[in-house]
Amino acid sequence: MKTKLVKLSANMLYVVALSHEAKPLYEKLQAKLLVSKHGFKLYHVVEKGVLNSAAVLVTGSGSNAMSSGLTWAQQYLTDVQAFLNVGIAGHGNLSIGSVFLVSKVTDDSSGKCFYPHPVVRKYKELQFSDILTVSKPSEAYQINCGYDMEASAFFETGRRFLNAEAVQSIKVVSDNAESNFKHLTPQLVAGYIKKNCDSIFLYAERLLMSSTPNEIDIDVHLMSKIQTKWKVSVSNEVILQELLRSSALLTPHSDNYFPQPEDSETLKQYISLAKQWVLSVKPSLGHNYVVGKHGE
Amino acid sequence: VVDIVYVENGIADHPISLQIQQRYANAKVVNIEKYAEVFNPVNQNFRVQKRNPAMILARKGGEKIIAAPEEYEIGGDQNYYFSHMLNCVYDCRYCFLQGMYRSANYLLFVNYEDFAGDLRDHVLTNGAENPWYFSGYDCDSLALEPMTGFAKYFLKVFAEPEMAQATLELRTKSTQIRSLEQHAELNGAADNVVIAFSLNPDEVIQAVECLTPKLEKRLKAIARLQTQGWRVGLRFDPVVWHHDFEKSYCSFFKAVFDHVDAQRLDSITLGAVRLPKTFYKTMLKQMPNEWLFKAGIQTDSGNLVAYEASIEAYMLNFCTQEIGRFYSEKVHTYRA
Hints:
By secondary structure, chain A is α/β, with parallel strands linked by helices. Chain A has helices at residues 19-29, 63-73, 151-161, 186-195, 197-209, 220-229, 234-250, 267-280; strands at 8-9, 12-16, 32-37, 40-46, 53-58, 77-78, 82-91, 99-107, 113-114, 128-133, 145-148, 167-176, 281-283, 289-291. The N and C termini of chain A lie far apart (66 Å). In chain B, the strands form four sheets. An eight-stranded mixed sheet of chain B has the order 4-5-9-10-11-13-14-18, covered by helices on one side. A five-stranded mixed sheet of chain B has the order 2-1-3-8-6. Chain B is globular, with a radius of gyration of 20 Å. The A-B interface holds A 103-104, 113, 115, 117-122, 127-130, 159, 163-166, 210-213, 215-216, 245-246, 249-250, 278-279, 281-285, 287-290, 294-295 and B 3-4, 6, 28, 30-32, 37-38, 41, 43-45, 47-49, 51-52, 54, 105, 203-204, 206-207, 241-246, 286, 288-291, 294-296, 298, 308, 310-311, 314-315, 318.
């Protein structure tokens, strides 16, 4: 018998190509290996409750691995609010060890472009650069251009699962015209990422803060009371949820005024009463409220 | 301030494009082929982008002058609008642009000369005695004036002899009126230009018109323009339903007409919050916690989402009466 997979909550999914890029991240996060399969690895951590949970995905090098790895990881995770691609990159003019946020990705083979929105307002340590995703390591270091092997696939795949704004890429320069990629060793790569972990996590935190707000909580006890008294169809449940949400927004400091199930004989009467009640609320701009007819 | 300026390759060297790139010297310039690559993709979140919008500089092709809705009461014998920019630096919670566009980036069409050419042709060929051209429906006409020089450019266009029969209306909440003042200092106020200010009480401005100038600043700007001889319109649209509605709008109208010369006003329009249903649904999805979309709002009648009919009637009647204490001309009222 197949057991149902329990998904783990991870607000931030760090997506990296190479194990030595991932190591400083999962070590700093104190994330534990959750699963290792098909050449992909997924590390997971719950820091302080659901809102600070994170995962680190290692996909392997190249566009195909990135695309399939990111898709594969979705079966294990829930509540993901952002994907952040972290990795090393070559660059035409930035110095080795510097960090940049990707502002444009061009796929060298297809010519396809992606433009990640600058969700997080620029701060001192943050700089932008365009990047070219190539299929083989390149020694052609052009001015104002970064080079990697996964970013275009990351954006193309990531945007299938999340809003475009929640898919971002941050890179650490590992090689340039003065010191090309041939000098790179696993230790050096890990070192470049490790040195910049604080910048990466600071950006990740700000990215999460910029994600869409959750819907306001409705009064679940009242909803349950209603469902105990009447058989509520799916469409009526949607209407009731919307009314309860309106109540929570318009009268945030009270739970006493919304009509109670005992005020009505039938569900139809109750919904009508609740609609009238919501319409009668005159919210204060300071979020206090008065229930009554307009003009009073 | 913007962090990224996307520049279409075709207009990278356009003077207005260069001028704006210079003004945003600290921003990263990203070259693009067509603005649609950045502005149009699906799966964008307007509200998330609104926290830090980027600027897109592009060329507007195709039709630039569009007929205004027929129910439009103010204006000339024929009414049109044109948009040199899509999206706004302000963040008014009721703004329909949030439901209309996928992106909150400011899309500025820098080829003013093409707009001007089309306007000249339009005035010559459309046969109207007094065609009226509105600006400020897809953006605020003046808010970015120091960057874009839009008003400065089009004041000159409408000052040309062949444009004398046409009227330009600039709709705004902004107090960036330096271009207008300079124009008046050199040439006098233009006879065929109306500056239409959207106004609301300060408490409403604070609650739902984020980032816009305070009422007092707007009123001072209006008074300065009136003193210079500019034609000014007032737009009490949308009025917003809330607990202190009567008290709030009563003292608001008094403050407005204490500052503004009612006798010299060009027009007044009035309307309450209303939105096409499709826009409302998109906006609600992106702002599920926005009280404005719940208070007194009726969602299940017709294609417009607006205040419940009796609430809207009450609000508009109340405002009409209050305005009537200071202004004897017709108040053009838009109902859902």
